[in-house]
Amino acid sequence: MRTFKFLSLVLVVSLLLSACGGGASKEVKIAILAPLSGPVPTFGVMTRDGALLAIEEWNAKGGVNGMKIVPIVEDSQCTPDPAANAANKVIDQDKVHYIIGEVCSKASIPISDIANGKKVVQISPTSTNPSVTVGTDGKVKDYIFRACFIDPFQGQVGAKFAMEKLGAKTAFIMLDQANDYVKGLAEFFEKSFTEAGGTIVGKETYTSTDTDFSAILAKIAEAKPDVVYLPDYYNIVNLATKQAKEKGITAPFIGGDGWDSSDLDLAAAAGGYFTNHYSPEDTRAEVQNFVKAFGAKYKDDSGNPKVPDALAALAYDATNLMLQAIKDAGADDPTKVKDALTKITFNGVSGKITYDASHNPVKSATILEVTKDGIKFNSVVNP
Ligand code: PHE
Description:
Blueprint: H1 2-20, H2 22-25, E1 27-34, H3 41-60, E2 68-75, H4 80-93, E3 98-101, H5 105-117, E4 121-124, E5 144-146, H6 151-165, E6 170-176, H7 180-195, E7 199-206, H8 214-223, E8 227-229, H9 234-246, E9 253-255, H10 266-269, E10 273-276, H11 285-297, H12 310-329, H13 334-343, E11 346-348, E12 351-353, E13 365-371, E14 374-381
Parallel strand pairs: 1-2, 1-3, 3-4, 4-5, 6-7, 6-8, 8-9, 9-10
Antiparallel strand pairs: 10-13, 11-12, 13-14
Helix pairs in contact: 3-12, 4-5, 6-7, 12-13
The structure holds phenylalanine (PHE).
């Protein structure tokens, strides 16, 4: 009898709450779409963890506009179809209005078309290909933003570094044409390198499932370029640079942000350089506070504080940007939130963010050097 009374009370209270909309308006959902499985799992884990840290910090301060922030994490696998499925699931089933993700451009592009069509705000922390925020028709996707610089800039920084700092006059490019990020970055590097008077002495393609690069490496050994440009993710970089060393190729490999992983094979990639978004060694207060908070929350296998990479930093920035925009908009209203984003000035871990007309931040790039003992800060390049 007592249990029955108690249950009826619970029922009445929850009916009342839902009738007033009280249950629903007290929280705001943020979807985190990240590649937790598939070829590049460190990208997904770091992205998820950076985003969750930001949400935890906001919730500890009372949420946003009095609403508790509820994260919904989905594995989008750095692959177009699973990414589209994850986007449809969080939008249609979970009814989210806000998406943080994906990491990989080839996954963010299909997500952006779905999100923009359904008026859901998306901020990709790390997808650098221009087509994430601008459609094939040349129109800016109203609801889509990113927290990182774009590849025309990243490719130019790589090319300038190769020529000015390494004295390179010739380069060989290796690329996976089916990967929007790799293909785009290779093109932008080539354009900048040749415009500045350099020569591309060879360009060879492979596919994402290749594991044996000996045919391409034989051509590199013959062409003897000053540098090899390999703008792919760490899983490919590990295989190609290891096989290059075994073949006795000494030309430095240069790449982009896709090299950034705790699973980058340092011995194989040593002597190489890559362009990136941030360095945890940066002494700015934003960076050091973030490194401390991240290390306090997350530990590596031996129990030491985890050092956040660029993926974690940008996911943290993207989530803070989204929450700041929700706060500025004063409502859980994606149309107002996207308007707030276009006007935002935000001091992030990865630098100061304001948006240009194409919803891209204008930010500096960091050049990192790979040594067998770790990744070393080299220099910062401003746009
Ligand atoms: N920029 C890459 C892309 O667009 C993703 C990436 C960013 C990977 C940063 C690692 C670090 O696909």
